[in-house]
Amino acid sequence: MELNEFVANLAEQFDDTDASVITKDCHFRELEEYSSLVGMSIIAMAKTQYGKSISGADIRSCTTVEDLFNLVSNK
Amino acid sequence: MAYIKGISYYLPERVVTNDELLLEFPEWSVEKVATKVGVKSRHLAAVDETAGDMAEKAARKLFEEYNIDPKSIDFLMLCTQSPDYFLPSTACILQNRLGIPTSAGAFDYNLGCSGCVYGLVMAKGLIESGIAKNVLVLTAETYQKYLHPSDKSNRSIFGDGAAACLISTDGIAEIGNFSLGTDGSGADHLIVRTGASRCKQATGDVFEDMDGHLRFDDYLYMNGSAIFNFTLDAVPEMIKDILAKNKLESGDIDYFVFHQANKFMLNTIRKVCMLPKDKFYINLEETGNTVSSTVMIALKDCFDKNVIHPGMKVMITGFGVGLSWGGTILTF
After folding, report:
1. Helix or strand or coil: residue B8?
2. Cα(B244)–Cα(B241) distance, rounded to whole angstroms?
3. What is the pLDDT, as a whole number, of residue B176?
4. How far apart are CA B90 and CA A51, in angstroms?
5. CB-CB contact of B144 with B44 (8 Å)
6. pLDDT (tens digit, 9 = 90+) per residue, B273-282?
7. The pTM is what?
8. What's the CATH number where A46 sits?
9. ipTM of the predicted structure?
10. Residue B127 — pLDDT band, cuts 50, 70, 90?
């Protein structure tokens, strides 16, 4: 898994948030567009693109995009 | 061999649109949600309308549309998780109301989104063992009555409805071999905790779950992310097993009709399983997720619109509460 690619994939899960906002240090859950539906998209992304199962609670344990990257990497 | 002979369905009169939901939840980005989950409106059973009432209406439609004499039915089963009473079985009441002979067997079975497939399992077993010749499988659910008024997610996804299917020794679609599965360790992920024997009294308790959603003890609770992950684990394996058990390959399947859980989940399953978009049914815009009736409703609509026609092999699957899943091949 590569961080830059992960960040780009994560940015794809947001429809209205500019991709430039999504960086490794971004507090993604504090973004205005973030919702439980975006959370579902992230769970689907982890499953379909990385073959990993993560839960809603896992996502809530992450603050930054890099935290999320590390979480998915270590699953 | 056992065949589906006819399918009909009934949707209650009251329709709730997304605009109506928006009036209750003005802060909600309803259009975005609607696009993702694929539901624009859903039907709601009337206050005094039960799953049994809806099942009766679906059965009467079936009798009328296919010119079926209720006296020819020798077995009746109803799939519901909202029975009219704790006892007796709603199916027994329906035997009388529908004019089905007293020599017929009847029972309810308690399953949700996998219920249609399990009805076919039991009907096929009864027919192939010579126990029955004409099995009426009814599915009916009023999940909306289990939802807390503030639960906008589930109120937007689920819809009430009922379906009726006659399985017989001849008909329009041969029922193939089944793949089935159960994982009770996930029972807590989709549950109404109170009102039955484990906890008869309402508790009034509310908790915040690990996803940050409120879990009301006395109403339906769904752990969305857990159900989503379960589906993405179970369904791809089930598809392989259905194909193996029917000695088929994915390319042999002309159409896929899966439980219409929600559009987002169906699209994700389709991508994970690399199923062709033009052969994969998604339509719950005007019904929502009607639980055990989605597959029957979809099959009926596809057949009426000639999307499914004679000569086609159709894979059907159901998956959800239990956790429970099942699927088979229908050869039209």
Report:
1. strand
2. 5
3. 98
4. 44
5. yes
6. 889 999 999 9
7. 0.93
8. 1.10.1200.10
9. 0.75
10. very high
Looking at the structure, tell me whether residues B307 and B255 fall in a common domain.
Answer: yes
Query: Are residues B21 and B140 located together in one domain of the fold?
Result: yes
User: B85 and B160 share a domain?
Assistant: yes
Number of domains chain A is built from: 1
Q: Which of A48, A53, A57 sits opposite B211 (nearest CB)?
A: A57
Is the same domain home to B67 and B162? yes
How far from the centroid of its chain's Cα atoms is residue B103's Cα? 28
* Domain, as residue range, for A30: 3-14+22-74
Tokens of B14: 């009251």
Write out the residue range of the structural domain in which residue B227 sits: 179-187+222-331
Chains A & B: contacts with CB separation below 8 Å: 56
- Report residue B237 as tokens: 């394996």
Q: Among B36, B212, B268, select the one facing A48 at the smallest CB separation.
A: B268
Active site residues of B: 113, 259, 289
What CATH number is associated with residue B294?
Answer: 3.40.47.10
| Pair (B249, B107) in one structural domain | no
A69: closest CA among B230, A31, A59?
A59
Q: Which residue of A has its CA nearest to B236?
A: A48
Give the containing element (helix H, strand E) for B124. helix B115-128
| The domain boundary residue, chosen from B171, B200, B234 | B171
The predicted pLDDT at position A15 comes to: 81
Residue B203 inside a domain? The answer is no
pLDDT digits (tens, 9 = 90+) for B173-210: 999 999 999 999 999 999 999 999 999 999 999 998 87
Residue B46 belongs to some domain of the structure = yes
B209's CB contacts (< 8 A; 6+ apart) are A56, B215, B221, B223
| Res. B303 pLDDT band, cuts 50 70 90 | very high
